[in-house]
Structures are given as structure tokens and as C-alpha cells.
Amino acid sequence: MTQLSPALGRSAVRLAAPAWFQKYGVYTAVLVLLAFNAAFTEHFLTVANLRTQLVQVAPVVIVALGMALVIGTEGVDLSVGSTMALATALLPLYLGYGLIPALLVALVAGVVVGAVNGTLVAVVGLQPIVATLALFVGGRGLALVMADGQLKQIVNPDLLALGSGEVLGVPVVVLTAGVLALAVAGLVHRTTFGRQLVAVGGNRAAAGLAGLPVKRVLIGVYVLCGVLAALAGVLATARLTASDPSALGNLMELSAITAVVVGGTPLTGGSVRVLGTVTGALLMQLLRATLVKHDLPDSTAQIAQAAIILVAVYVARERRSR
Amino acid sequence: MAPPEAAVAAPHPDADGAAPPTVLEAVGVGKRFAGVVALDDVSLTLRRGEIHALVGENGAGKSTLIKVLTGVHRPDTGELRLGGQPVSFARPHEAQQAGVSTIYQEVNLVPMMSVARNIFLGREPKNRLRLIDFPRMHREAAELLAGFGVTADVRRPLNTLGVGTQQMVALARAVSVRARVVVMDEPTSALEPREVETLFRVIEELHSRDIAILYVSHRMDELYRICDRVTVLRDGRLVHTGPLAELDRMQLVSMMLGREVAEVRRHGVTGFGAEHDAAREPVLTAENLSRRHLLDEVSLELRPGEVLGLGGLLGSGRTETAKALVGALPLDSGTVSVAGRPLRRPSPAAAIRAGVSLLSEDRKAEGIVPGLSVRENIVLAAMPRLSRAGVVSRKQQDRIVEVFMKRLRIKAAGPEQKVEELSGGNQQKVLLARWLCLEPKVLLLDEPTRGIDVGAKAEVQALIDELAQEGLAVLLISSDVEELVEGADRLVVLRGGAVAGELAGDLVSEPELLDMLAAHTPEPAAETPHTAPHTDKEQE
Amino acid sequence: MKSLTTPRPLSAALRSTTASPSPATGQERITSLLQRHGALAVLVAVVLVSSLVFPSFGTLDNAQNIAVQASFIAVVALGMTLVIITGGIDLSVGSVFALGGVLAAWASQYGLWAALLLPLAVCGAIGTLNGLLIARAGMAPFIVTLATLLGARGLLLALTHEGATTYLVPRGSAFAELGQGTVGGFGYPVLIALVLFAAGGVALQRTSFGQSLFAVGGSSDAATLMGLPVARTRILVYLLSGLLAGFAGALNAARLSSGVTILGVGMELDAIAAVVIGGTLLTGGAGSVSGTLWGVLLLAVIQNLINQIGSLNSSYQSVVSGGFLIVVVVAQRYLARARRT
């Protein structure tokens, strides 16, 4: 590190604290929370409780994984909640043909939403917020139209098994989220697509001049995000044993963005932190659970959540500004 | 306001005798950024009613000096004096209120707002109800512009007007705040010849009102036509200040570039070796590349095994030519062929596939991906070739990265260090490695040694030599005359977006190049050097 | 993206020359008209056609109905317009709207002024917090207002014992009258909204503050170099947005006679949609409050129409709004491109 100029070295020291905080803050926070609960909360560190927490957080994790990819390209996807609603509305319509066809239809809906978003961003050149706002507004309406605005009970045993089944004692939902997290981590770190994604987010002009397929990468990212949201919609439906397009995935975009941001992925793109995102979702889940267990109301949880987001972004800003 | 005079007055011969009083002055100003010296003990005196040229190549410190004078930066050492009194501007606003206005190279107005609103932004005329009086505002704006000989619909959004008119609007705003000093940072760089004429009329108008003008430009013709005195900066230091008429163009250019004309014969400071044996058949041919206002019928050929230098002062179209060659600048017309085959649907990706790579000038904005490691920055373009079924092969990457880090002597803690933590020279080597690992046929290097330390510079120069010897076709763009002359086998010189001439063999020398750089733009209204007065018959 | 590799200074074509102001060409005028008044044209067309097709649509009763329903979101969208013109965004308005309603309903037991001032104070404070974090701490508007969206909703839940308590506005109080009274058949909220839009229009077009909003949104660097108070303008605009959202919430509570806690979810995005449909550029620097008014009315008319067509599911409304939004922003994008080349 001899080539570092003294000024750079100094600023590195000055910024070390927030940088460290941004990198490991979320893990520390989860550990602190767990330690606090181990000491002060009864029946918290039990298998049953942890299992409940994991089952509850799984859909958020899946959506947040897609969101992390989008944010890695300096974008954002507001339409994930509506995509979940579309998936849940489509499921009962096609369950008659069996689980697999219905699942495929739901996932194709995610692909379509993602392709529209991606095209608006990459080809038309809209800001990601606007591009995905349209399907945020229209997507849920479409879902309600398709479902006739009604809640439908799910009776298909295969689908229900997705929600309540277990493999080796691990709920299928949790297992799926875990596998997807590994897959996304692999995608980001080990594949051409993943590295190109990060490069496009880090410096789009340089990526273009280096001959990277910028548009294709952007569209691909939004499609992936759409598919993950659709899958989360399917799993959430299975767990609820009902298809409720008016409620499923409400405010999901906020939870997902929160998980990503708290997990240390900068909103300015150029980096995707998969483990951080998973931990960010867990942190929010545990925080809420802790407050609930201590008879603190939901409102406090929301205010705490708001404060955590602001701190996370403030810290990230410190590091970014030069 | 008086209508513009048809004739432009001669420069004031105010070198001695009763010099007009000083308006604005910088005394021993020094400024550092993150430890790097941008200005070192620079002084500048602006007298009332003079047009003062500020010249220097890139990195000479011109823009820093301007920013100090106009309140964007505060000097670390030295002071500013306005009318003899020490002043300190905390913000651009304070400088403006003190009578120091600036117009910038890229028009710094709000494009979507109307002309009149731009001129009066922040000090709109109000009616009795304290609401903006638009009729009055439009009237005054139109009068103000008419005073400069510009008639434009002041209600139109600024961005529907030509750049020249926009520049006039910026000037009108700058002057209407009762400016005593107007700083113009390359005001003509985006103007058409006719617009330049209008600008000059306005400058004359200001001149006649005794407003001092600091005029920054690279265009010799303009400087000699309108400026009285000149200050030359180089590497953050003051090189010369005095009446412009005492210098001829050759002397001025050599001062800017730091080359004594007589000393030019001196040899071997650069890392370049002998000349190369170039093949006959060109590997890259560009024919009549044109793009409105940027490139005008630029043609050139590049043969394997040669280093072709592309010379020209700033804004002559060097970077644009390089970008056009790799399809990064959309062209109005013209073709680029590689090995005889024209590139259809040009894009960087297509150029890379054809074996043409561009090391771009702006390392930060268009080169490195700051958050990624040295390894990833090197393999960025080659990634598809180093992966199987979309999965990157670390083994292959590591092998290539090791080869190039060794060959280019990239100094980093390791291949996994973030590229943003490296020095400029090492970042540049990383980018060179990015292109070299594609094994290109043609390598376009846009200012490859700018902003890197002396050691790395010599290394990069030696590398260019070596690559040409290995049979690569290299295009070298550089503002460093020495580098260009010693590195290139052949030189193409650009001026105003067009090819001004070509030098080959023994003619590749500093005097020849300086001559060509200093020559006049062949324009219908060409004047002889040093005689600024001219008649402007254009009356619209 | 092409634009990334194109040098900037010359992107504006030199269509007109220095000394000859070419009058706006016909095509130019049409694109500019479409951009500014497209929403109004569509609104007029929709209203005309629907009046002919549905006899129950073109009645005064129905018009009054639409007007009242649109008035609350209109006030929220007014603040959003100002924010978006500066190139920002305010996602917190939905929560702030609901919070304003709850605060007003609770305070209405202490009289009209308490019912108005308390929500304004609290919501103004939230807006100021947004503004400070964005303008002074340099954080992204999107994420800051996302956090205050959650925070305001949390505050609301805390005030209402997790939504279990609904505060009622005393029957017949002056505050209730403010929401429910009418003049010439139109409710006070409609008149208030119109007055606010008129004031907003004047402030935007005829004051220095309004001009600085356009300047900050058009080019904040240029605004700084021109000596405008950029940070102060930003803070002020988020303050205004908070105030307007809180006030709209209070009005709504007066109309409903209670502070309904579940209102306002997703309202921020409806407001943004109305603003964008009204021709205000999300990238900042251009827009108008009248356009927003047309955008709001257009969305309200569509909702009303879908209710008129009894066989249609009311969910079609958001489908149509979403479709409209895409068409409008894509059209804006291409119009802007067409104007530049």
C-alpha cells in the first residue's frame, strides 16, 4: 500500500469507522439483537420461534434478493408487490392443470413485468422509479381484475405442501429462500452476467465502452427481479392457503428496499451484497419480533425501522462522498 | 445602450506609460487538492477595460485560477484584491455581487427556462403586488440582448436556441449585474464561426464600457485578434505575463507547452526508442468521418507496426476522432473499416470484436469501475472469453491477470485490491491491461500518460514502443509535444475538427508540429498575425 | 445509451442562429402543446364522450361528486408537483395525509383552530425533516421520504393505540362544517383546493421562489453558480409538501367526521401519477400546477366512469391509470427527444 498518498491514507483512517459500520453493522446488529433476546426475552431462542421468524421472513428475502440486483445497477423496482399480487391471482386460475403449469404461468407473469420494466429503463431510458411506478399502479389492478377482486381459498394439496411442507425438518419456504440466496450470490460473484451487472451499476459509461451489453444486462436484471417477486408471491399464497390479490405483497417494495439498504448495498449501484441483504431482512424481522414480544406495539417497530433506514443511508453517504 | 460598433478597436498599447488602474488582482495564489498542487504562487493583474488572455494546456491550472477568482474555490495561500482592497469570496454569489461575473465553457444556465427568466433569475423585476412583472422583464431582456446586437424571442426556452445565442444570454446575465470583470472560460469552444463574430462584437461592446475581461481560449486566432495582454500558466505556475503583441504565435505555443524553440533538438527524455517498420496495408481505415460541429471529413489510415500520432490543441477533435473510430460517437457520415471490412452498425462491442480497442481519455468517468478489484477491471472486456457457459473461470482470469500485472508492473497490494485505491499511473496500467488482454489489432490511446507520475509515464511509453514492434497498430493522442514527436512514426494534425496536415519521416519534429499547431484556421476572414483590427461587414 | 457517449455542449441543436430568431415551427409548437396540455385535452375528450354515452355522468350531481372526491388528492398532488419540479420526490405524503387526519380529528375537540394548526405543525415538522436530510445531509429524496413514510405511519399508529381508536369530529362543529358544508352545491374542500391551486400557480409562475424551483430542478449546479439559495429552496419545498399533505388529511377528516387510520396507503404514488400525467417532468425543471389539476381530475373521472359502468370491476381503475402513466411518460420521453433533434 506504499503508493497510497498520505492524504488518501489519512482520509481512509478518518472514514474507517463508518466504512466498517456499513460493512459489518447489519451483522453486528443482528447478533446484538439475538444476544439481547437470549438474555431478556423468554422463549425467544427456541427452535419453534426461530422457525416462525424464518418462515415469516422468507418471502421478503426472496423479493429483496431481486431488489438487490436491481439496486446494484443503480435502479429500483417499485412493482414487486404488484407482481406478487399478479402471481397469486393467476395461481387459482391454472391450478386445475396441476401445480407445475400454474407455477409456470405465475413465473411467466413475473418475466413479463420484468421485461416491461427493463425495456422502459434500458431502451426508452426512463428513470427506474417512474418506469416501475406504472406497473406498481396497474399491476395490482390487473391482478384484482383477473381474480374478480375476490379472495380464493387454495385447496390444491401440492401448492399447500409448498407452504407447510418440510424437508429434513426445514420448512420448504425457508429452504427455497436459502437456496435462492446461494444461487443469487453465485450469480453475482461467479457468472459473467453478475459481474457485468455490477460493472454496469458501477460505471455505465465505462461498461459501454468496454463493449458490455448494457441494455441486455439491465433488462435481464429486471426480469430476474420480476421472477423472484412472482415466486415469492406463490410461496406466500401457499403459506396463507388463500389467494388474496388485494392484500398480498402490499408495501413489499418498501420492505425489500429496506432490507437491501440496511444490508449495506449502496443505492448508487456498483455493488450487490447478498448476505447483507438476507441479514438486513432478518434484522427487520427480528426487530419487529423483539418489540412485539416485549409488548411494544407495531407503531414503535415502524418508527424504529424508519430510524434504522436513515442511519444506514446516512452512513453509506459518508463513505461515498469524497 | 449603444448599438455595437461595426469596427473593432485595436488592442490597447498599454504595456507602458499610463496603464489603466487595476480592477481585480490575484497575488501569490496557491491551491492544493488532496495534496496535489494545482496552483503555485500565481499572480494575475486585470486592468480596467483590458482583454486579458489566460492560456495553458490541460492541467496548467487555468480553471483552478478562474474558480479562485470567481469564488468557487478559496485560495490556500495568497489573496485576491478587488480595486486594491483584499477580498474573499465564499460563494460564487458573493463574487457576482462584487462585480465579478463568469461565463462558462458549457453554458451554465437553466436549459428549460426561458431566455428572460434566465437573465433575471434571482432578481426578477416585480410589480406593485410583489409579483414578477413579466412584460417588463421581457422588455428589459430584449433590450439587453439588442444592446449586444442579438434579437431573439426572450420568451422561448433557452434550449431551443443555438449554443451561440445561449452564450449571449449568459453574457447578458453576467453583464446586467453591473459587472466590472467578466471571466470567459473558452466561450467559443462550442460556437460556429458566425456566432463567434457576434460574441466578439459583444466583447467589443463590453470593452468600450471599460469592463475588464479575462479570456480563456486555446484558439490562437481569437487571442491575437482580441486580447491585449496574456498570462501563460504551465503546471500550476506562472510562466509569463505581458502584452500579447510582443510574442509571436510560435513563442506563445512553446511557452504553453514548455519547449524552448531553440532547444527542440534535445533528445531522449521519453521512453520511446527507434522508429518502427510499418506494413504497407492499413489495418484500420477511416474515411470522411463527420459529425456536426465536432468532426469534419476526418480520414486516416493506421498500419500494423506503426505508431500514428494524432496532434492538435484542445478541442481540435482528437478525442472525438478516437471515439468515432470505435463507434462510441454517432456519426453523420463516414465509414471505419478494419482489415478492409467496414464496420456496420458501429458500437464499442463491434469494434472490440473487430480488434479495435480505445483507452479513453477520462480515466475516472469512462475507464475504471471504481468499486471493482484490479482483477475484475482487467478482465472486464474479456470476461465472455474467459468464461464457460456464462460462469467465469477464476483460474483463467488469475492467469491472465498475473501475466499482465507482471508485464505492466502494476503495483497493487494484489489482484483483489480495489482499483480506486491505486495511483493514477497504476490505474492507467490496469486499463491498458484490460485492452491488451483482448489481443487487439489496433489500439487507440487517448492521452495515455496524462496525470501519471514520471516513472509510470516512461514505462507506458516504452510499452507503446514494444507493442508497435510486435505488430500492433497504435494511435497515440497526446497534448505532450515531446511524447507525440518521439513516440509517433507519423503525425496527423487536427484543427477545428478537420485534418490540418500530416507529417511523416524527418518532418515529425517539434518545430514542424508547433508550426502546424500555431497556424491559422483557414477561414474566409483570415487576418495577418498581430493585427487585430478587422472589419466586420456582417450586418444581420 | 447513446446519450452517454455524446458530448454534452452540442446536444442542443443549433437550429436557430444567433441573430435570426426563427419562430417556433408548427411541429415544435404541437409537441410543446401536447406536453403542456395533453392531460387537459384527454380530460375534455373523455368528459365529452362520457356525457354522451352515460346519461348519469353529465349531471351536476355527478360533477359535484367527482370534484369532492378529487379535492383531497389534488391538494396532496399540488405539494408533490412543487417537489417534483425541483427534481425531488416525496413518498411520505400518504402517511402524512393519514397522520394529519388523525391529529385533526383528535384536536377537533379543542375547536377549529386546534384541529387545523396541530396537523399543520406536526406535518410541517416532518416535511422540514425531509428537507433538512435531503438538502443539508445530501441524502437521496427517495430513501429519506421512504423512511419518513414509515415513521409517520408509526406515529399515527402510536397515536391511535395501534389503530384501535378512531377519533371522532364533534358533530356540528365548525371543523366538521369545513369538510361537509357546501357553496353552490360544491363542498368547501373543492373551493379550498381551487384556492390553493390558484395560489400555487401564482407562487410558481409569478414569484422568485417559484422561479428558483424551476432553476433548482432544471440544473442545480447552474442555480448554485447563479447565486440562488438552493438548499433553502429544497427545504422549503418539502416543508410545503408536508404542510399540504397534512392539511388535505385534516380536511378529509372533517369531511368523514373522523380520523380514519387506514387512509393514505399508496396515495403518494397516485399523487405522483397525477403529477406526471399532468405533464410535469419527473426529472425536474418543468411542470405546472394546472397540469396536475387536470391529471387529478382525469384519474377521478376514470374512477367515476368505471363506477358508472356497473359491470366493471373497480380494479380497472388502477389498470387504466397505470396504462395512462406508461403512455404519458413514454410520450414525454419521445417528445423531449423530438424537440432536441
UniProtKB/TrEMBL annotation, chain A:
TM spans (from-to): 24-41, 53-72, 102-123, 129-147, 159-188, 219-242, 254-287
Keyword line: Cell membrane, Membrane, Transmembrane, Transmembrane helix
Pfam families listed in its UniProt record: BPD_transp_2
Keyword Hydrolase: no
Protein name: ABC transporter permease
Superkingdom of this protein's organism: Bacteria
Membrane topology, as annotated: Multi-pass membrane protein
